[in-house]
Amino acid sequence: MFNGIAGGGAEDLPQLQSTMRAIELACSYIQINTNPAAAEATILSLHQSPQPYKACRFILENSQVASARFQAAAAIKEAAIREWSFLSTEDKGGLISFCLGYVIQHANSSDAYVFSKVSSVAAQLMKRGWLEFTPAEKEVFFYQINQAILGSRGLDVQFIGIHFLESLVSEFSPSTSSAMSLPREFHENCRKSLEQNYLKTFYSWAQDAALSVTNKIVESNSDVPEVKVCNAALRLMHQILNWEFRYSKGGTKGSINVFSDGMRSDTASSRKTECVIVQPGASWCDVLLSSSHVGWLINLYSSLRQKFAFEGYWLDCPVAVSARKLIVQLCSLAGEVFPSSEYSVILDLFNNLDNAQMREQHLLLLLSGVLPWIDPPDVISKEIEEGRSGSEMIDGCRALLSIATVTIPVVFDRLLRSIRPFGTLTLLSLLMGEVVKVLLANSNDKETWSYEARDILLDTWTTLLASMDGSGGNSWLPPEGMHAAASLFSLIAESELKLASASATTDEDDADCLASVSAMDERLGSYALIARAAVDATVPFLTKLFSDRVARLHQGRGTVDPTDTLEEVYSLLLIIGHVLADEGEGETALVPDALQTHFVDVVEAGNHPVVLLSSSIVKFAEQCLDANMRSSIFSPRLMEELTCHQLLHALVRRRNICFHLLSLDSWRNLANAFANDKSLFLLNGVSQRSLAQTLVLSAYGMQSSDASNQYVKDLMAHMTSSLVDLANNSDLKNLAQQPDIIMLVSCVLERLRGAASATEPRTQRAIYEMGLSVMNPVLRLLEVYKHESAVIYLLLKFVVDWVDGQISYLEAHETAGVVNFCMSLLQIYSSHNIGKISLSLSSTLLNEAKTEKYKDLRALLQLLSHLCSKDMVDFSSDSIETQSTNISQVVFFGLHIITPLITLELLKYPKLCFDYFSLISHMLEVYPETLAQLNSDAFNHVLTTVDFGLHQQDVDIVTMCLRALKALASYHYKETKAGNTGLGSHAAGQTDPNGVFHEGILSRFLRTLLQFLLFEDYSTDLVSTAADALFPLILCEPNLYQGLGNELIEKQGNPNFKTRLANALQVLTTSNQLSSSLDRLNYQRFRKNLNNFLIEVRGFLKTK
What we know:
The protein is mainly alpha-helical. Helices cover about 70% and strands about 0% of the residues.
């Protein structure tokens, strides 16, 4: 219907006109939503017609309907990509030339989206032929573009030329390129060629285009057409610098990454603010540094800024935004672009500046240009509050973040010192301080510029401070910088307290309150880094703040409403907690290096600033034991913060502090109240557990192991006895359902769990006896509370933590007792169908049930994993074989109970998924023979979940599944080679009653793994682990492997690809002296073979 390439003669005119009218009518029908199905079918017929180029050209050149022209351009692209291999070289070049000529000829048209589409089609077709075209042929196209960009044919054509280069660069970038159903190797080779041979040239052309119109823009008193060209040029330069540079001119990064999914990896993803580091290589030095390019850009923006100083709109106009973006991008320039001494010619241009000096000079020039955007902070802030746009201030903050990303604190600070009487850290502190003041004044308005500025500046502080020693220490912070950090932290703390006080009178619902606390918690880590950068000042300051608020509570007791002050104390405790402790894995808080290495000159522990601060908090916490004080000034939230946050955790992590704590009357009173007073049962579950863990850990400060164990026994005796008494009650079934008893049991279990999680060698014996004494009560309660999911979970978690802390220390007879207890627990759990979920529940209740059972199942998986550890880590004096305790049988018995309950839907919970595959991987690696004994249904369920795990995004999950496959396949291969059955029928396959043959498990996984390795995206970190799984699978199923290889070879339409693939498959299993023995050396050889194989074939097998 729509045939031909060349322009049509007179005899074709009626047909071409008819086609154009049909497409125009279809487009108009779609716009007014009249018979859209028929209209879409008409347009689709144009797109799918063979060689519709003649009709498309006619529509583009003659139609007055913009949407029809747009569809014609799209049809050219689709047909050309589809038919590319059948087109002649002349036709290919002709299509590109037509598209380029069309946009240049119609450069002054108002239908911008049409010409953007045609320009995009030209870029896509140029990329499609990129590896075919000779340098001379490319030069013809680029000569035409360069002439347009030079401006000799007018501003509109100049803009079109720049816009085409934007489309071209976008098309060659992996994250924005169009799908062409071509091998990844093609896309990467195009990318490499453009980066090495053209990107720098395009940047220079954009520079020249901007320079050609700059004078006219600066000299003009109004907006002129040249602004459009300048903005496009600046935008193109920013786009090019945003390129993920991978291939240096010298080829040091010359190999193609066949595993990449096209997403860039050089951004600071952990920050709220994205910051791309620009590393174009040494060859870019002349363009970016030695050509006065940065100075020109700074001067251009400064001139325009001064010229339009009284025009409020200017800061947000496109050219201003583009210029600032480019300036900010240049602030993150790094790497070989700053040459070493070997580049002597370039260094001569800079008076022999070395790499570091050259970098600092570059950053100082940029900082000098950015300063007017942010300094003086108070003046600019006031102007913004009076109506000026805040975009320039925010970009200035981004520039500081970029500079911080590519420097160290001492360099960052001295940049400003050469032109100002203070350093950059002081400016950063002043700027952040002003932003905090604005936030405080506008606390009810969440959309102000200051919120974004605060996040960027906090990222800047975090980047600088966390880079020094990983915890914010001040090893390399200059004195003035420490003073700036101290001043800023003081302001932040005071502001947070004012906000907390104000929040006491606001009417927030629970969701808003939780969101507010969560949002603040995200900032506390950054606040803590700033505080730790100047601990000499900030720790005493926090002590004073806390003491002042406590004194205020006492002074106003009974006469003044304490609500405002209580909110301040709560907020202050949150801040102090983050300053004094780092969050580690699990529930154990870590003492920051900045606090451990500081205050070394303090001899008396009682005079240590951290001890003084901590002691003041402990003494305040002690007052909650007094009923009158508790009712008058202690809110529930404040009590939770005192007991469960990082504060007390941090105090008990060091023995010298524990020793000091145990000498305090307040600490002894707290421990006594915990052991004997029911008043602390008012705390929530997390607080109960945390307080128990903290108090047990403090036993580390006792003089001897016996004393530590006795301390723990005294602390926990009341808890264990209450649980034993309850379980032995003859009326337990009725008694247990009373709300106060459920609360009591829950509190006791939380405390037992907290104590169990605090197990250390000095207190292991006492905690073992604690758990031993409640074994039978736990089993009894498991039966009684089978319908109380919350209590069941607490029971399971206590057992999990207790077994985890004890198992490696137990003697053989003790291990047997614990194992028997765990088997009884699993049997009771199973017999009461506690883990079953009724499908008759409503969707809401079903989701709640899934969540509850997910938690239970995860706890049981952890229990089985902890039991497994006995075979790996054993500190006992004898062996568990003495009592014939078979850990593997116990664990597989547990898996037999748990596995049917773990559906693929539940495995979507990340933590459950990780725990499950950790256990499965371990069991298959250590006890593959036991798995082989499972019945067909149980075996297939386990392996179905392994297949599920192979396709997860989490690298750790995939790694564990690959290790499981390796264990399974290597076990079968070694066993069958020795004349045994190995996996037996599980590996042999079987025919179902309908006569359909089903492959064995190893055959299925060989197919799956080859598909994964050849066609799916994954991290290169997985290749070695995958090789270890693939090697034994190939040895187990050599005929299938050969058949799959032949099948893949025959699918290749390109003879070159077919030959390459056949050779690569042959080399994979024969090169590098590879043999059929599953020993360490052969595994290493096969890893190397597989890596080379994938590099060779993935580039053309995987398409986009």
